[in-house]
Amino acid sequence: MNYKFRLISLLTIDSIIVLISIFLAHVFLNPFNPTVDLMLVLSSIILLISHHILCFYFHLYQRIWKYANIDELISLCKVVILSILITAVSQLIFFNDLYERGLFLTLILHLVFLCGIRLFWRYIQLRRDDVIRKSSIKRKATLILGAGVSGRSISVELQKTYSVLNPVIFLDDNPKLKNLEINGIPVVGNLKDLEAIVEHYNIKHIIIAMPSLRGEQLQQIIQRSKRVCKDVQLLPKYREFATGELSYSKFRDVSIEDLLGREPIKLNNEIISAQVKDSIILVTGAGGSIGSEICRQLIKYNPKELVLIDHSEFNIFQIRNELERIKGSTVIKTEILNIENRKRVFMVVEKHKPKMMFHAAAYKHVPLMEGNIYSAVATNILGTNNVVDASHNAEVENFILISSDKAVNPESVMGITKRVAELIVNGKNRNSKTKYAFVRFGNVLGSSGSVIPIFKQQIQNGGPITITHPDMTRYFMTIPEATQLVIQATSYSNGGETFVLDMGEPVKITDLAKKLIHLSGFTEEEIPIIYTGVRPGEKIHEELFYKNEQHYKQIHSKIFVFNNNQYLQNVDYLQENYLFLNESELQELLKKLINEKTQYTPERLIQT
């Protein structure tokens, strides 16, 4: 239907309604003598013209009746009342008389007919759409956990879209809601009835609509839901709901991160913003799991310039495109280079002269590095030394190395090289204007080479899941958690600190695998777990501190800090000779570097 035809149709319908309202009011008030006089004719013309002019003024003819709502009804009321008032004034001016009863009854009939026909049309259209939707889509019976504001919004969203999800039941712990209906959907019980309700109503999909739920409570709800229903989704984070961004398209599947039971991290955004805003910041390894997330977090604080360094052209392309969409006033610059190239590193750092540097470029995969010791040394040690020296040369204000719990009492090539990197950073801090520090934390969920992607692939292949040892434990954090805390730690740095992130309690890898099996809708009989034996370089349990590092201070609910004087002055000998040594000799040299360094001295706690 084109606009002109639609407008003519609406004008005609409204004109008929206005004239019928006037006629019925006149007949009702004068049933035995419904004579037509000049006052009635003139009043009808004025009312009709004023009605159409006001409808144009309030844009009522631009609105689609199918989506008529309370705002449109309010506008209609304004039009009717104002047009009646204009007619009344006209009667007083032209006839020195006022037909009060006739005007009042016309107003009532006018409102009833105008609002009624729009709402009736909306009802017909929605019913038609509902029939089409039900006939064309096989919908899944859906249970919504939580009948609060968010749950109600979800039910409306699902009912008005062409979703395959059909909300049939609410569960809520509020006893006042039991046996009531919300948007035509009954609240049949509370959360303790979950298992029985799913079976009784043949529920095929569960939506957890409790965005404020966190930690252990959320874990329990997710685990109970996954035991009785394969398809479980979570509402987006509460801030998305609060800002009006909630929609069905933003529902997300339950992930293993939800089962860690993490409380949301509270950052001191003022301190971070004061350091980051309007600054030039450089991130190495910007295309990797940790580096890219550091960039995503930093961009929120509006740095003047964000320089991305990575040796992978594809990774740089991906993260740059993503950041360009959300950068605000920040200028994004990229440098594709390998940090093993010392001259090139110096050129790039001197070119941009950043205020802060985050060094995330590293090889992190333990078993792979056992067979690639030369690459591990070249990148994790010599590459780090290059970046450290370049930051000193360019007088960078703050430098943060991303380290690992595997650097504590290391037994792997990766761990040893990261420990040497820590000592290089400590050594440079002794004779540089740059404030050097490092942040140490454990495994991050979802990073490249981590257990979660491997387990998911094994489940997709039908199993089994392979774990090296039944007692194997690891510290885990999500990538956003870790990177937020890295940035927060940097804001406290005065140089020479070791920051250690509170990773919570270590998690058994076997338990993690079982949770992932259940999340995927399988049982341990369907996807078995087998143990393959500890691989070279692996430890059963990781550590976050050396024994002499226990005198730390907590400067944030999730960050510990301490200072010590253990360092390496330089790695010249290693750089000149590592390619001339065989693998065993090189590994012995690395062990000697971390065992025959400057002796420990009593730690000096950082003053805050």
TrEMBL record:
The keyword Transmembrane helix applies. Residues 281-562 form the Polysaccharide biosynthesis protein CapD-like domain. Gene3D superfamilies: NAD(P)-binding Rossmann-like Domain (3.40.50.720). The chain crosses the membrane at residues 7-29, 41-61, 73-95, 101-121. The keyword Chloroplast does not apply. Keywords: Membrane, Transmembrane, Transmembrane helix. InterPro entries: NAD(P)-bd_dom_sf (IPR036291), Polysac_CapD-like (IPR003869), Polysaccharide_Synthase-Rel (IPR051203). Belongs to the polysaccharide synthase family. This is Polysaccharide biosynthesis protein. It comes from Lysinibacillus xylanilyticus.
